[in-house]
Specification:
Length: 236
């Protein structure tokens, strides 16, 4: 079954009676890297959670080109503060594979490749809960990518990380798109958006004010608030 495109129509989210997001229409095509920019409280995380199916819609629809059940198996979500299983680094990587009925030998082979890739081979047998913030973020990303998802949602994956770890994470993301993974992520980092994104979604107060190719967005944003955001002015 083909998973893409993902089409959101008239998407509206409310929480405790308060309007948070929408109405919003969006199409995501296979292979795109879309970055969501916008001020704090603009609805970036809500949009990601809604598209992933872990936030209830007030109205509207989200449609994949396959069944809902199939689509959930083919997508992963990495939270800004990643949740570590109370297991070793290595077991955090084998766990999602074993859940998917991957053989023990294949799960171990893939986990061995990934601990090397993310530079945690030397500490792969310690508890993942003892890792630093940057190490946890790399492990959470690897744990998502080891399943070879078609769609990956990321909520500010390099917020508060140092430059070296940010570069490592960006390189992981670039390499996974070569394998066909589609990415949608939120960020506050305009430099990161320029480095990674094929297109930019600019959200403000729950409204999608711009949806443009990256080069066009930074040269001629369609929203006055996006222009303010790019130049560092306060978006009210």
């Amino acid at each position: 079954l083909v998973m893409f495109p993902l089409i959101a129509e008239n998407l509206v989210v409310e929480f405790n009676g308060k309007h948070i997001l929408g109405p919003l229409d969006l199409t995501v095509n296979k292979g795109d890297i879309s970055l969501i920019l916008g001020p704090n409280g603009s609805g970036k995380t809500t949009l990601l959670k809604s598209l992933h199916g872990i936030m209830k819609l007030k109205r509207g629809s989200i449609k994949w080109s396959c069944s809902d059940n199939s689509s959930m198996k083919k997508q992963m979500f990495v939270f800004q503060t990643p949740i570590m299983l109370r297991r070793s680094v290595f077991e955090n990587l084998t766990y999602p594979l074993l859940l998917r009925k991957v053989s023990n030998s294949k799960a171990h082979r893939l986990a061995t490749e990934w601990v090397e890739k993310i530079g945690l081979k030397e500490i792969m047998h310690i508890s993942a809960t003892r890792l630093s913030g940057g190490e946890k973020q790399k492990l959470a990303l690897a744990r998502a990518l080891i399943t070879e998802p078609e769609m990956l949602f990321l909520d500010e994956p390099s917020a508060s990380l140092d430059g070296k770890t940010t570069v490592e994470i960006e390189n992981l993301l670039k390499s996974c798109t070569k394998n066909g993974t589609t990415i949608m992520m939120s960020t506050h980092d305009i430099g990161q958006a320029k480095r990674l994104a094929k297109n930019i979604l600019f959200l403000n107060k729950g409204i999608l004010e711009s949806n443009q190719l990256t080069e066009t967005f930074f040269l001629e944003p369609t929203s006055p608030n996006a222009q303010k955001f790019i130049t560092g002015e306060i978006v009210e």
